[in-house]
Design a protein that fits this description.
Layout: E1 6-10, H1 17-24, E2 30-34, E3 49-50, H2 52-60, H3 64-74, H4 83-88, H5 97-100, H6 110-122, E4 127-128, H7 129-144, E5 148-152, H8 160-166, E6 171-176, H9 179-187, H10 190-204, H11 212-220, H12 229-233, H13 238-256, E7 264-268, H14 269-274, H15 276-287, H16 293-302, H17 316-333
Parallel strand pairs: 1-5, 1-6, 2-5, 6-7
Antiparallel strand pairs: 3-4
Helix pairs in contact: 1-16, 2-6, 9-13, 10-11, 13-17, 15-16
């Protein structure tokens, strides 16, 4: 089976990319991988050589960072009489890293799919992380009958330099959204509450660059889960998330400068909402699939045009501070 064309959707996070993944997964020719790299932090694009079995263990091993944020930021807030708790019990289930988000996005029976993958992954020859990811994509594509691969992880602009190094043939889609709405969404989302803390800690230690977040996650969660409630409960000015968004966009655009023009398109989330058919056709052409009529119709239904403007409901003082902190990123995007 020839290698499936590979595209990475990259962005700041909280920019509408989850909604886009939901649209992409409905196309029968697309292997839509949602949060593959995010679910494997820290260092999802690690250096070195791995055997097939080592790679399989790498994508299965539950990550303490993810478990900590899920336990204290999501699970703890579920009412005891919620459908999820009623179905799963009081104790938060712990599943393999790849079976938490990636495989459920592809199938209603992720455990069976993972069981099918294990023996084939284990016998793969030693190789780089890129070799093994390509092997995983091929196995999934063969089982699901897809033609192209599209991976999308939140807060992935920082991964662009390493993705270019490992997958020089890949195409890229930069998805971005109005900075005010993005920053507001970040401030309300436990994963980004933790990210902001870790990135600030890295800056205080004089650490920067694309790997700074992975380094901090590795250091803080090296010995297992951590009680992150003080981080999630901290009262942080909204403008701090505006600054995080601006810095992410400015750094990310610099990384994207190294992507050949023919292999990069930029998509505004607001344009996806306003003219979904036009933008989805553009995306289909870029990733290499047919713009199927039924898929375009499903995409229109998935993309809710009301998913915007929440920041405009803020108090004047908060809105003004947020506008100021988002201004550098908005200028960089030409908005």
């Amino acid at each position: 089976m020839p290698a499936q064309p590979l595209t990475f959707v990259v962005g700041s996070g909280r920019c509408g990319s989850t909604a886009l993944s939901q649209v992409l997964r409905q196309h029968p020719q697309i292997l839509s991988l949602s949060e593959l790299f995010a679910s494997l932090e820290p260092f999802p694009l690690r250096e070195g050589t791995l055997t097939g079995e080592e790679f399989r263990r790498f994508i299965e091993e539950p990550r303490p960072f993810t478990l900590s944020v899920m336990r204290h930021g999501f699970w703890a807030k579920l009412p005891e009489d919620s459908e999820v708790r009623q179905a799963l019990g009081n104790e938060m289930p712990v599943v393999e890293a790849i079976a938490a988000t990636v495989l459920p996005h592809l199938t209603d029976d992720p455990a069976s799919l993972l069981a099918e993958l294990r023996p084939e992954l284990d016998v793969r020859p030693s190789g780089s992380i890129a070799d093994h990811y390509r092997g995983l994509f091929e196995l999934l594509g063969r089982r699901l009958g897809t033609r192209v691969v599209v991976e999308r992880s939140g807060y992935s602009l920082r991964l662009v330099p390493r993705l270019l190094e490992l997958f020089p043939e890949a195409r890229f889609v930069h998805l971005y959204r109005n900075g005010l709405d993005t920053a507001l969404s970040m401030s309300r989302y436990p994963v980004f509450q933790a990210f902001r803390f870790l990135i600030e800690r890295a800056a205080e230690a004089g650490r920067g660059g694309p790997d700074a977040l992975s380094v901090e996650i590795d250091e803080m969660f090296r010995d297992g889960e951590v009680d992150v409630r003080p981080i999630l409960d901290a009262q942080v000015p909204l403008a701090e998330y505006g600054r995080l968004w601006s810095e992410t966009i400015i750094d990310g655009l610099a990384y994207l400068d190294d992507v050949p023009e023919s292999r990069l398109i930029s998509v505004a989330f607001e344009d996806l909402l306003d003219q979904p058919e036009l933008e989805l056709k553009r995306l289909a052409a870029h990733v290499g699939v047919d713009p199927l009529a039924e898929w375009l119709e499903a995409g229109r239904a998935e993309l809710d045009s009301n998913r915007r403007g929440a920041a405009r409901a803020l108090a004047v003082e908060d809105l003004t501070a947020l506008e100021e902190s988002c201004a550098p990123g908005m200028r960089a995007l030409g908005l």
